[in-house]
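User: My collaborator sent over this chain with a note saying "see what the structure looks like." That's all I know about it. Can you take a look?
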Amino acid sequence: MGGILRTLAWPWHHRTLSRMTDLEEFGAYVSRTGAQKFLAYQAASNKKRAEFLSVLNTIRVDLQNLNFLDLGPAYGDSLDVCHEKGARSVSFTEIDPFFFAFNRLKKFTIGYRLNHLSKLHRLPSRTFDLIWCKGAIVADHAILSERVPIRRWRLADWLEQLEKLAAPGAHIVICPHWRNDGARRRVQNVTDSLLSRVMFGRGYKTLPEIPGHNHQPAFSLTYHRKLS
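Assistant: Without extra context I'll predict from the sequence alone. Here is the result:
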């Protein structure tokens, strides 16, 4: 219920946040409204930075002069790391008004306030050298979209659109969220799931388990593809 109420308040928060021009003003608003989700991600920032760097080390990506895109960066730790490491451009999509405003106000980012599940076509094609998506896809929904293809969103179509955004030789990293009760996933065999079969069919491979990045039961697998 709390999550639903927060979402219903988004338009009101967005109107206020969209007028802000600096992070000091934003910080005062967060303190005044007690934005719990934002504060929780802020508290986890150091861990998120280390996680992102661990994945980059695994796939051996040098951020210097790369065009980066994060689908749903939350606090934006990945954006900060890319900027610090010399990325040419740092872009993101976000629908949460607090996270969108915070990352917009960093000044070095290019922000798209949109739902990436349905509006990737609004982003520039053949542009991004590294595309990062952790937690912004629910694996169970992706599987259902393939089983019931009349649904509005379908994994295969989304992947096709996502890959159109990638520059030649780009890396795409996708770590979906698996629904669970805190101890047990709804889908037990993730490697042989319909989601994995779709991903493997499009040339993705699973990365070895990365401590701090992959953890059970929610973030079991990370898919990676390097485009030719």
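A starting point for your reply to your collaborator: The longest strand covers residues 166-177.
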